[in-house]
TrEMBL record:
It comes from Streptomyces kurssanovii. InterPro entries: RPA_C. Residues 1-95, 142-165 are annotated as: Disordered. This is Replication protein A C-terminal domain-containing protein. Residues 61-82 have a biased composition (Low complexity). Transmembrane segments: none annotated.
Amino acid sequence: MVRKKMEGDEEQRRAAARDAERAGEQPSDRGATTGGSKQRAHMRTSTPHEEKTASLHRGKQQTATGGTQGSSRADASSPARSFTGRGRQDYSEAHERVFEALVTAQEKHGGEGVHAEEIARSAGLPAEETRAVLHDLSDTHGVVSELQGADTPDLGPRYETRPGL
């Protein structure tokens, strides 16, 4: 039978069990053991979402930022880039500048895809604004293709004009 997975090493679990016993409680009551008391309880459908998910993080080692250790995000303080809530962006002068810069850079590279930073330099726009415009050209207007994983090691997405334009 496979042992139940739990955060922390053997010494941490033993120390938590000793602390519980000193406080006059059973270690399993505190969730300091790997036993069945750590299993999620079945909850009614009328139970609020917060109560249902509260047991998921029980027994996990929390970091200072509130997340669990081993988080995949390198820098939790910087917000993730998101294009949601922007609505449909009309084709503007910035879109034209970025598209022209993409076509020129793509010709310079023999028809291969081009990184957003190079397009931004050619268009004379900040990198973040260029990425947003490239997103619009790709998803909204459909004139640009975004190529993921085109490099080894991966250096980020490359962009190219859609074939047949």
